[in-house]
Amino acid sequence: MSLRTSLKALPTMLRIGFSEAVAYRAEMIIWVLATTMPLIMLALWSAVARTGAVGRFGQAEFVGYFLAAFCVRQLTSSWVAWLLSYEVKQGTLAMRLLRPISPLLAYATEVLAGIPLRLLVVAPVVAISLWVVGAGAVPASLGGWGLFGLSLVGAWLVTFYLNVLLGTLSLYLESSQKLMDIYMVLYFVCSGYMFPVEFFPPGVRMVIDVLPFRYQMGLPVELMTGAHATGPALVLLAKQWGWVVGLGVVATLVWRRGLARFAAFGG
Questions:
Q1: pLDDT tens digits, one per residue of 12-61
Q2: Domain locations in the chain as residue ranges
Q3: What is the pTM of this model?
Q4: Phi/psi class of residue 210: alpha, beta or left (left: φ > 0; alpha: ψ in -120 to 50)?
């Protein structure tokens, strides 16, 4: 498969993916409802903040943070690990391999094609956050928006590559479901999804800062709500994109070797 062929096919694949997302909009609504944990945590932490601020967070700051977390989750989520694992078990991955387009590109476009519909959910949530919190709910400058946008793209790529890596392990293991369950627990706890990562003790925070999970959720949320000056934000973005490159290389290598194994066993 050449790069030129992929680029020519990409618009068509995105249109097909969007049509499928519209056709299966009920499933999308169920997925959105299944990712409302930040709204639950917002209610819990807002109740805590009624008796006094928690660090730099009062009730308004918690509203801004968790509504931002909800929005980031909608725009960066991926289900490729579960889809890939299912297709390996059912043998339908072989059908994808017969097409002239890389299955990884096909998986990516299927996820990206649903983002326009997710924006319909995100837009009113951002409006509510602006109404409750004010200008602090979004970046205050064009540069801030740029850093946030870059972190959002990085978060999507980190999540996608982790999903590819986990799903590809199905080519090596009888089942990678347990590993995916562990991944989800670590993501919930370490990413900033359930509470800001700055609530961890300093020692634990040092460990979290070198793991990929914070860069899937916490960093975009922090940049959206103006938690970092430009200098620290650039350092964190460098770490995030280091994970993008590293995971991209590892996921691609594991994928290629897994396909060779898949073909050798008659997949």
A1: 666 665 566 555 555 556 656 567 788 888 888 888 888 888 888 888 88
A2: 3-264
A3: 0.87
A4: alpha
